[in-house]
Amino acid sequence: MKIAVAMSGGVDSSAAAALLKEQGHELIGFTMQLWNQRRHINTDENGDPLPSRCCSLDDVYDARRVAEGLGFPFYVLNLENEFEESVVKPFVEDYLNGETPIPCVACNSRLKFASLDRMAVSLGCDKVATGHYARVEYDAENNRFRLFRGKNHWKDQTYFLWELTQDQLSRAYFPLGEMMKSEVRDLAREANLYVAEKQESQEICFVPDGNYSAFIDRYLEHENRLDEMPQTGDIVNTKGEKIGKHTGIHRYTIGQRKGLGIAHEKPLYVVQIERLKNQIIAGEKDELDTLEFIAKGINWVAFDEPSEPVRASVKVRYRHEPAPATIHALPEQRARIVFDEPQAAITPGQATAFYNGEECVGGGWIVK
Fold this sequence. Notes:
alpha/beta, 5-stranded parallel sheet, 24% helix, globular
């Protein structure tokens, strides 16, 4: 097949390319330049650039070197403007609205995969390959492409892919779906890829130090939007009683324990963020538990929108163990999800994914 390969400069995408090359496919490599390093937003107090291990210029160089070593053409797609509009700005706005966004889901499906898919189609490619740990299978009986968890459950990335459409899934190819991470590194070593020992980035690519609130501070300053900077306000308990002060709602997320600065007989956690009142609501651990929530932007992968309630295991964040629930479809691509047992720290702005065993049947965005 003729395959467009997404090249991030990391070991996973590089190993995927090596495997496809070994299988005899015709490859075209693509790296996406996303974050504009020249804007100097990600700098420390001395003006020095913060270290980054994802989507940096070094990663572009690494991806090009791998493609050249494996002997296939390589191109860089400049998506800086699209990334700013569809990922970075919504990330900032969500935090200013008291939510905790996960930009990697939208980036993977709406930007990275969508852009590469369009390019692949224009070049006559049969498939679009990435280094994601996931699997796609075609259901001939129902004429539908279905999304399954990767064999490596710890690395499974279907949580980031539930927004893919049937058209996109028809061309999606995940060569690492049946592999464990150790096998991937062994493959990279055998192919003599110098990125074989490269470490993974655990942070959002445009926030290299993991300090989201500091990034928002710098971003608002750079954009001359300091008047939008969240102000200090009250921390109240679940009875509405004032118990402390916060330093801006963008510095807090549901489930957070550290940094509240409040003495209490039991540990306190952020259980709710009230943007309109500029309040952080704190409570004890059991007050984090929630039985149900509403999600928007629902995409059903395994079937069309159901007319009856759907039983599934539901994940409310990447490292959350899917829990049994009933999903009730609502108008306008929304759904009400009711768990069998209360779940902790369900957070507006995060993604939710629905599973039936190994299959990811759909997902959405947590609203409340």
